[in-house]
């Protein structure tokens, strides 16, 4: 068999993730591998935890990246906090709320689903009604930035309601971290998980998590073992925190993805250099430019303006347009990836991401120009020049 090294085609990634990876991150990935218990690596781990606390706006000592993708960050939160028989209220307004429910069930818990329409934020009144109807609930789970729809929920209010009814909270911030305001401590979030491949401009494969002292007390006082050996915080903390809570006595748990952690460290260094508030503002500013161009092309965003994510834009497919054919043409002709709809929105929307290093003016103009050209070729009238001018005018502000 004759084989050769894989050479990926050059792509501009403007789907729901992964996003474009910054060159500084790819350079960091190529640095020499050292041992995962090497003192130099341990020092980097401590810096990495501090950088994550900055990004998440928290002082939680238990803040670290799980050595697996964002879905494992989700499982880390659920398997550690949900015991058999626990009642968990799950706010579901898209695919990832549904996955939260699945985690509760697999942990042996009882899931009470508070459902909202896809493309809308979670309704706090519905959550409050559910909390009153289920006074024995122990946890509330919700998605901050629903990647399947581009809707952003009011996590601060949802957490306040949960705490008012003595519930711990689990928050999905996979698409939110680095792109939308997220205040773990100020909002009182008990457990939060994210991903490395979206607004952090890093490669897929790592899942930042953070647990409050209140949540950690729940973990350490469980009456049943955590169902996952690999994700059991009671075990993994010996590696990430050390037996004495420091870096000097780390115990072996697993072989950490050393080079991937170099990449996340570099991504977080860049985020600190830019400033977290400035990153939020950049994502919002570029969203406004993209929106101006899309609307000039005659396209509509499906999420109401007050509930939209800046970094993930769900765009309604015009009538008579083959949405899959448009995506294929963009990829084949322009090396541009945008995402398809999922679940209830499958075939009805495109998902256009402006995350991390992908959130740049040149990407916005490429996307608008390419999309306008393809739509015109398919018989949908679109004024590409006017769309580009609208986006440039917004960027100039």
Automatic annotation (TrEMBL):
It comes from the Bacteria. Keywords: Aminotransferase, Pyridoxal phosphate, Transferase. The lineage of its organism: Bacteria, Pseudomonadati, Pseudomonadota, Gammaproteobacteria, Chromatiales. Its cofactor is pyridoxal 5'-phosphate. Belongs to the class-V pyridoxal-phosphate-dependent aminotransferase family. Pfam families: Aminotran_5. This is Alanine--glyoxylate aminotransferase. GO terms for molecular function: transaminase activity. The keyword Transferase applies. Residues 1-20 are annotated as: Disordered.
